[in-house]
Amino acid sequence: MTARRKRESTCADQRKSGRDESPGAVQDCPDKGTARVPIEKEKGTNRNLFRAWLDLGERVQARQPDWLSPLATTSGRLKQEFRYDIWDQPAGGGNTSYQFGGNKGLEFIASSRIQILIGVPTYLLVSPSGPPAGFGDLPLMLKFRISSAERTEGNYLATFLLAATAPTGSHRYGAGEAVVTPTMALGKGWRRFDVQSTLGVNLPAGDRPRWEDNCCGTRHSNISWDGNSGPNWKRTPRSTQRGNMRARRNCS
User: Fold this and answer.
1) How far is CA 175 from the centre of its chain?
2) Which string of DSSP letters, residue by residue, matches 59-107?
3) What is the mean pLDDT of each run of 10 residues along the chain (252 residues)?
4) How far are the Cα atoms of 201, 206, 227 from residue 244, in angstroms, in the given order?
5) CB count, 10 Å around CB of 145?
6) Alpha helix (H) ranges present in the chain?
7) Count of Cβ atoms closer than 10 Å to residue 153 Cβ
8) Is-contact 169 146, C-beta < 8 A?
9) CA distances from 204 to 167, 175, 184, 199 (A)
């Protein structure tokens, strides 16, 4: 009886100190093995949740076309990736304009129809004799897949995108206020050829729509096309509208 009490006292001391001083500690302490079971179950549960999330991403991506992502616009496909784009293009005065980030970032699938983007603010630089460099606003996006089919089942997609930018950028490169951009992304493929396009409108926070031209030719709204993104309606921020009104008075 005395030896048993001594062994139980030793096990209690080891549990408090978190040490196992002998290889046979689990056998010597009757409840030591059972104390480890919840820890192993918790680790197994975490691994299973992570594996289930990866499996969900694979199933979601298998039920949509396997097209490549466009370079200059947002794809309607749901994806799990980290994307970081770098752009350069000629600017005035013999300069070159560089964009690092391209409003891309971490994209992950949250459910069978939803993907979330947490972007990296774009860093803009004009070299060699441009204005000071700086960061743009923080991009965020939620994608909701309305309908899609893989290549053998129709090869198409329709996705609703709700993008937004938080006003974290510098005065020169940021919008100065939050901007929400509801967008529709559509696509259709034929064998190895596919067409993808987006159509959206920029809605600055606290600003009212102004769809008109002024006498100097500065548009409050415009329709712009590029090779990938399709039509894009934009609204001019309120500060620019005030400047355009002053320019209109100067024109008259």
Assistant:
1) 19
2) HHHHTS--PPPPSSS--SS---EE--EEEEEE-GGG-EEEEEETT-EEE
3) 51 52 48 59 78 92 90 87 91 91 93 95 92 94 96 93 94 90 94 91 71 34 36 42 43 42
4) 21, 18, 29
5) 22
6) 2-17, 25-28, 32-62, 238-251
7) 10
8) no
9) 11, 9, 18, 17
